Amino acid sequence: MSDQTDGATKRERVEKSDDEWKQELTADEFYVTRQHGTERPFTHPYNDEKAEGTYKCTCCGAALFRSEAKYNSGTGWPSFYEAESDDAVSEHKDRALFMVRTEVRCAACEAHIGHVFPDGPEPTGLRYCMNGTALKLEPDSDE
After folding, report:
1. In a domain, 29, yes or no
2. Of 20, 29, 54, 119, which is most buried with the most CB atoms under 10 A?
3. Residue 120: which residues within 8 A CB-CB, separation 6 or more?
């Protein structure tokens, strides 16, 4: 039985072996996204980033969050109150570290991107606390 808590699996799946991911990702990106690691708080530039655009998955490039939903949570990690779309991320029970949390993964490639907590701002009340290492910001173009 899967620990997945939502049905966000509409996106085309991206599946690669660990060796393939290691060839494409930096050591830090692999650790965070494929080995479910966490970067230290207040260390990634995206924590303070103000540019408008789309935050995409470091691994597969899928759109995950929009800058309009980003806010300063004070936690030291880039935080968002909602995902880019209903099928952008999937949620899974995380029982590591002797607690139960909700892990957030890219719905396309299952990259670990962070956790979601029920203490965020309106309109959703959610705090998607993400690892900046798991994201790539694609700035909006000046059309």
Report:
1. yes
2. 29
3. 71, 73, 79, 81, 126, 127, 128
- Any domain includes 133: yes
Catalytic residue, chosen from 57, 59, 109, 129, is: 129
pLDDT of 32: 97
Could you give the count of Cα atoms lying within 13 Å of 95 in the half-sphere of its Cβ?
2
Query: Could you tell me the pLDDT band of residue 142, with boundaries at 50, 70 and 90?
Result: low
Tokens of 98: 């002797």
Contact 33, 25 (CB under 8 A): yes
Short-list 54, 57, 73, 69, CA closest to 110: 57
Gap between the Cα atoms of 124 and 56, Å rounded: 21
CA distance to 34, 114, 136, per residue, from 20 (Å): 11, 22, 19
Tell me, what CATH number does 53's domain have?
2.170.150.20
129 annotated active-site = yes
- Tell me the per-residue pLDDT of 63-115, one tens digit each, with 9 for 90 and over: 999 999 999 999 999 999 999 999 999 999 888 767 788 999 999 999 999 99
Q: What domain range includes position 126?
A: 18-139
